[in-house]
Write a structure and sequence with these properties.
With 154 residues, the chain is α+β, with helices and mostly antiparallel strands. The protein has two domains: 92 residues, Arc Repressor Mutant, subunit A (Orthogonal Bundle); 62 residues, 2-Layer Sandwich (Dna Ligase, domain 1), CATH 3.30.1490.190. The protein contains six helices and five strands, in the order ααααββββαβα. A three-stranded mixed beta sheet has the order 4-3-5, with no helix packed on it. A hairpin with a 5-residue loop joins strand 3 and strand 4. The protein is flat. The chain starts with a helix and ends in a 6-residue tail after the last helix. The relative contact order is 0.12.
């Protein structure tokens, strides 16, 4: 789905709540959809301050992220370090996450065998699956190496 189509859906979502797509909300929307990174609200706020244009307050960033999440445009998760990170979910394929509990690194992956197995489990248990979130937590290779004292990185 193209960003313009997603923006139109966001405008419709806002109108349904008697809100407008202000220039600040639009800038936040555009920046959130311009990255493939996972980001915190504070990171997004920093990005907004670095770009010329209308000033965007920290509160507006948080409120807009809440609206984007409520409307299903972004999703949030804990990065294992207690920070909430966001990513946009429209316009790209479903994926799952590996999260390092030591450094907060997040790696995305897709696996058709895991997807098929989840569908089979749901079917066997009488569920019609609508969505799912798979998050695997552990220690990344770099943190394992650090902990082992080797200091090597992948």
């Amino acid at each position: 789905m193209e960003q313009d189509a997603i923006r139109k859906r966001f405008e419709e979502f806002l109108r349904g709540r008697s809100l407008k797509l202000t220039s600040q909300r639009e800038r936040i929307f555009e920046r959130a959809f311009d990255t493939l990174e996972h980001f915190t609200a504070e990171t997004l706020y920093t990005w907004m301050r670095e770009v010329p244009g209308a000033r965007v307050s920290r509160a507006t960033v948080y409120r807009t992220l809440n609206l984007l999440e409520e409307g299903g445009f972004v999703t949030s998760m804990n990065n294992g370090l207690g920070d909430i990170v966001y990513e946009h979910v429209l316009g790209h394929e479903h994926h799952d996450h590996l999260v390092c509990l030591e450094c907060g690194r997040i790696d995305e992956f897709q696996n058709t065998e895991i997807e098929a197995l989840q569908l089979e489990v749901a079917r066997r248990m009488g569920y019609e699956l609508e969505s799912h979130i798979l998050r695997l937590e552990g220690r990344c290779a770099a943190c394992q190496a650090k902990q082992a004292g080797t200091g090597s990185r992948r």
